[in-house]
Specification:
3-stranded mixed β-sheet; 6-stranded mixed β-sheet; globular; L-arginine/glycine Amidinotransferase, Chain A; alpha/beta; binds citrulline
Length: 432
């Protein structure tokens, strides 16, 4: 493993994001890193996916609600669907990075191992003795074994055998989780987001997902490919999830505020982006606090440099509070104003087009639930979408958008589509 040499202080192994990142909270000097994302639709060059694995096998009818799944996926089929998704991207020349591969490579670094073990072992749940035993066990596990424990979790019956009596072990059911699984890890969009040449480790709102950012944090801190990448935003700040962050144009962000991202999260993300020179305008966009609209990207995604696909039910009501820097480290707040005109103004275009999906309200509601509006652009006017959203896809095609259809019958049970399942790490700039 390459030595961890950066232009900024080495992270604290048990808390990589604790590094002091420059002037504003979460800010560092520009790294000149080779990764950069300035828009939603610039030709996609590199993307981070997570092929679902053993963590999905932890889902049962007793825990699926708490673990944020609407059903119990058929795991082999979900993996096949995900492989097909990755293949579609590769066929378009996209470099696909798989989170588990990066994690195993990262865990070759002893500081990453320390941080990974620290994130997984919860002394409040295990008690001192069991926590110590688990730490020792994981400390000697191979990188591959540790990566599985970190992603799929561990049950009490999977803990290493121990001498003596432990009340904790004796009173827990053998199938209780000693380390929680992370079945939502495949929604890589939410746990980190690139803005310009910096990566923000987000702050996830739901308890079932919080530990995901420990993994993205150590990957970006210690993987040789990323360890010099600049950071944006503070990983332990107010909740912001990547599904709420849309890069409408270079310097223009929209941040959904609803079930996941809070007003404080949107405001501090904006403050950090302004301090780092990553944005001149952030639109804070209120969305209904419901599961169906958990993130902004469940109702609106960009399909071209000046066009979005949007859930018709919100088209006329979506609003925005434009935030701009006040020049002395603060944030000026305007609005609320209609989202579409506020976005167009900030983007410097005459109009932000909404592809007219013209759906009847029932079909629109069904296809929104199945992530019809959650498309991933691989280039301007070219998007990946779930094939099941037949009507939305047909309307997109009618409007001249090339739709690369993928199957999501099993993947969709986690309530996330192609955008949710992808974290763009590098996009070519938009020219012209
Ligand atoms: N950006 C997204 O909309 N991500 C989908 C996340 C689905 C996951 N089951 C969750 O509830 O967080």
């Amino acid at each position: 493993m390459t030595a961890h040499s950066t232009a900024f202080p080495a992270p604290d192994p048990v808390n990589p994001s604790s590094v002091e990142h420059g002037s504003a909270p979460g800010a560092v000097a520009s790294s000149g890193a080779p990764h950069r994302v300035d828009s939603e639709v610039g030709p996609l060059r590199t993307v981070l996916l997570h092929r679902p694995g053993a963590e999905l096998k932890r889902l049962t009818p007793r825990n699926n609600d708490q673990l944020l799944f609407d059903g119990i996926p058929w795991v082999d089929r979900a993996q096949a669907e995900h492989d097909a998704f990755a293949a579609v991207l590769r066929a378009r020349g996209v470099e696909v990075l798989l989170l588990s591969d990066l994690l195993v490579e990262t865990l070759a670094d002893s500081r990453a191992r320390t941080a990974g073990v620290h994130s997984a072992v919860d002394e409040r749940r295990l008690g001192i003795d069991l926590a110590d035993a688990l730490r020792s066990h994981l400390a000697t596990a191979s990188a591959e074994e540790l990566a599985v424990a970190l992603t799929a979790g561990m049950t009490f019956e999977e803990l290493p055998a121990a001498e003596g009596a432990s009340l904790v072990r004796r009173m827990h059911h053998p199938h209780d989780f000693a380390v929680d699984p992370l079945p939502n890890l495949m929604f890589t969009r939410d746990s980190s987001v690139w803005v310009g040449d910096r990566v923000a480790i987000t702050s996830l709102a739901m308890p079932a997902r919080r530990r995901e950012t420990a993994l993205t944090d150590i990957i970006y801190a210690y993987h040789p490919r990323f360890h010099s990448a600049g950071r944006a935003y503070g990983a332990h700040s107010a909740p912001v999830e990547g599904g709420d962050v849309l890069l409408l144009a270079p310097g223009v962000l929209a941040i959904g505020v609803g079930e996941r991202t809070t007003p404080a999260g949107a405001e501090s993300f904006a403050r950090s982006a302004f301090a780092d020179g990553l944005a001149h305008t952030v639109l804070a966009v209120p969305i209904v606090q419901e599961r169906a609209t958990m993130h902004l990207d469940t109702v609106c995604t960009m399909v071209d440099r000046d066009a979005v696909v949007m859930y018709p039910a919100v088209r006329d009501t979506l609003s925005a509070y434009p935030l701009r820097p006040d020049g002395s480290g603060g944030v000026l707040v305007d609005g609320p104003e209609p989202f579409l005109s506020a976005a167009a103004e900030a983007m410097g275009i005459e109009r932000l087009r909404v592809i007219d999906t013209g759906l009847d309200p029932v079909t629109a509601e069904r296809e929104q639930w199945d992530d019809g509006n959650n498309t991933l652009a691989v280039a301007p006017g070219v998007v990946v979408a779930y094939e099941r959203n037949v009507v939305t896809n047909a309307k997109l095609a009618d409007a001249g958008i090339e739709v690369l259809r993928i199957s999501g019958s099993e993947l969709g049970s986690g309530r996330g589509g192609p955008r949710c399942m992808s974290c763009p790490v590098d996009r070519a700039p938009l020219v012209g």
